[in-house]
């Protein structure tokens, strides 16, 4: 009897626990006067969003029903790996996909028009994005000015059309196997005619292509790629960045996930800083103090370019550890870690690495003080690696005791 009662309680306990939802976002509905319909949005907000006072770049995701989950996963993983900043993702559910994502085309033959149904609404849909959706996101969320759009297939066609018609609407484009079989006069135009001021072009355009074999889609994608390359190569003053990444091992559907993953990496590649590691590299930058100053300056400039704060925490941390490895420079490591703490006073890692520096320099008491702060801060979070911070504190306390006893 006791066994059955215990088993029942355990079963109830596991049943209750197993029903806790795992949530990656929420939905909301806005009404569009331009499209004369309601549109459902899927919204992802990064961890810690509610308690943060910073702003975040926004990824606008077409075909959200198919792409929202893997885009969130890619953004979270790349953020965890320090490859990209945290971001807001706004997925846009479809109502009439073919209508919204295609430009009007007199060259579309009758059979194609019958198969696609209502087409030609790309300009109207772009107006909805610019005049209704974006203002709503800016007024409702902590949105930075930096905007990315990701479009797949017909969504990629929409990206290309938008770039030619209104390139500044988005700062970056992830264009995935674009349906350039669709008759679209814009891609036959000369880049120099469409973009006569290369010094004002600061967008990033990333494009992929799956194992597409039918029609002239592949040829038009390759042609467009060549136009981008020629334009950039002949205009040294342009800020336009472009990468074409063919993925012949992927299908038209599967290409979506790796395209978003690698597209985000390419867009935020300039946020990756090469920290000088060797004595020669540090001296070449003007010495330890100048090397630290260079990091702060670089990230201030990058933050200004992107329009939101791009963290310098990891670069300053790496700089500190690099300095610790060189006998002549190791005392400068404290300057790097203190600069990091000044910039990120709410970071438990900033206290932790400063503690490590003091420990390396045999100042055990200051190491302990910083380890204690780090542990107290990390215990208030859900970080499963809190034991490492506890281990650091235990270890330094043993060193202090051994030194005192001696």
Word description of this protein:
- The protein contains 16 helices and eight strands.
- The termini are far apart.
- The chain is of the alpha/beta class and 406 residues long.
- Helix 14 packs antiparallel against helix 15 (364-378) and helix 15 (364-378) runs antiparallel to helix 16 (386-405).
- It has helices at 2-18, 64-80, 97-101, 110-116, 122-140, 154-165, 191-194, 217-234, 256-267, 279-284, 288-306, 313-324, 333-343, 348-360, 364-378, 386-405, and strands at 26-32, 37-44, 56-61, 88-92, 143-152, 172-176, 204-209, 241-246.
Condensed summary:
It contains 16 helices and 8 strands. The chain has 406 residues and is an alpha/beta fold. It folds into 2 domains: 26-271, Rossmann fold (3-Layer(aba) Sandwich), CATH 3.40.50; 279-405, Serine Threonine Protein Phosphatase 5, Tetratricopeptide repeat.
Give the topology.
Elements: H1 2-18, E1 26-32, E2 37-44, E3 56-61, H2 64-80, E4 88-92, H3 97-101, H4 110-116, H5 122-140, E5 143-152, H6 154-165, E6 172-176, H7 191-194, E7 204-209, H8 217-234, E8 241-246, H9 256-267, H10 279-284, H11 288-306, H12 313-324, H13 333-343, H14 348-360, H15 364-378, H16 386-405
Parallel strand pairs: 3-4, 3-5, 5-6, 6-7, 7-8
Antiparallel strand pairs: 1-2, 2-4
Helix pairs in contact: 2-9, 11-12, 12-13, 12-14, 13-14, 14-15, 15-16
InterPro entries: AB_hydrolase_fold (IPR029058), Esterase-like (IPR000801), Siderophore_Hydrolase_D (IPR052558), TPR-like_helical_dom_sf (IPR011990), TPR_rpt (IPR019734)
GO molecular function: hydrolase activity, acting on ester bonds
Organism: Salinimicrobium marinum
């Amino acid at each position: 009897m006791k066994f059955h009662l215990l088993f029942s309680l355990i079963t109830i306990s596991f049943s209750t626990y197993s029903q806790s939802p795992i949530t990656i976002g929420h939905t909301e509905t806005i009404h569009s006067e331009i499209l004369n319909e309601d549109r459902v949005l899927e919204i992802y907000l990064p961890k810690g969003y509610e308690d943060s006072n910073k702003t975040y770049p926004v990824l606008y995701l077409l075909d959200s029903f198919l792409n929202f989950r893997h885009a969130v996963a890619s953004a979270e993983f790349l953020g965890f790996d320090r490859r990209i900043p945290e971001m807001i993702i706004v997925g846009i559910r479809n109502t009439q996909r073919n209508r919204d994502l295609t430009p009007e085309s007199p060259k579309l033959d009758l059979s194609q028009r019958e198969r696609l149904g209502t087409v030609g609404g790309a300009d109207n849909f772009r107006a909805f994005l610019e005049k209704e959706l974006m203002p709503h996101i800016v007024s409702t969320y902590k949105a930075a000015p930096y905007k990315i759009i990701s479009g797949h297939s017909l969504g990629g066609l929409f990206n290309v059309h938008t770039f030619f018609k209104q390139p500044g609407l988005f700062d970056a484009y992830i264009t995935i196997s674009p349906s350039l079989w669709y008759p679209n006069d814009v891609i036959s135009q000369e880049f120099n005619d469409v973009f006569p001021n290369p010094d004002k072009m600061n967008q990033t355009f990333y494009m992929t292509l799956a194992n597409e074999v039918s029609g002239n889609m592949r040829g038009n994608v390759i042609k467009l790629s060549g136009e981008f390359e020629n334009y950039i190569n002949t205009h040294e003053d342009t800020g336009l960045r472009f990468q074409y990444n063919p993925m012949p091992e992927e299908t038209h559907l599967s290409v979506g996930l790796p395209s978003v993953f690698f597209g985000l990496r390419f867009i935020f590649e300039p946020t990756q800083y090469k920290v000088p590691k060797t004595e020669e590299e540090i001296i070449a930058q003007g010495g330890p103090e100048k090397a630290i100053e260079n990091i702060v300056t670089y990230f201030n400039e990058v933050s200004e370019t992107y329009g939101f704060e791009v963290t310098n925490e990891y670069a300053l941390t790496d700089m500190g550890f690099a300095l610790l490895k060189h006998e002549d420079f190791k005392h400068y490591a404290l300057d790097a870690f203190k600069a990091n703490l000044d910039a990120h006073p709410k970071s438990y890692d900033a206290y932790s690495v400063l503690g490590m520096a003091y420990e390396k320099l045999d100042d055990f008491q200051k190491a302990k003080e910083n380890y204690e702060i780090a542990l107290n801060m990390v215990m208030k979070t859900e970080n499963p690696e809190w034991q490492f911070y506890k281990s650091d504190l235990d270890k330094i306390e043993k060193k202090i005791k051994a030194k005192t006893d001696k």
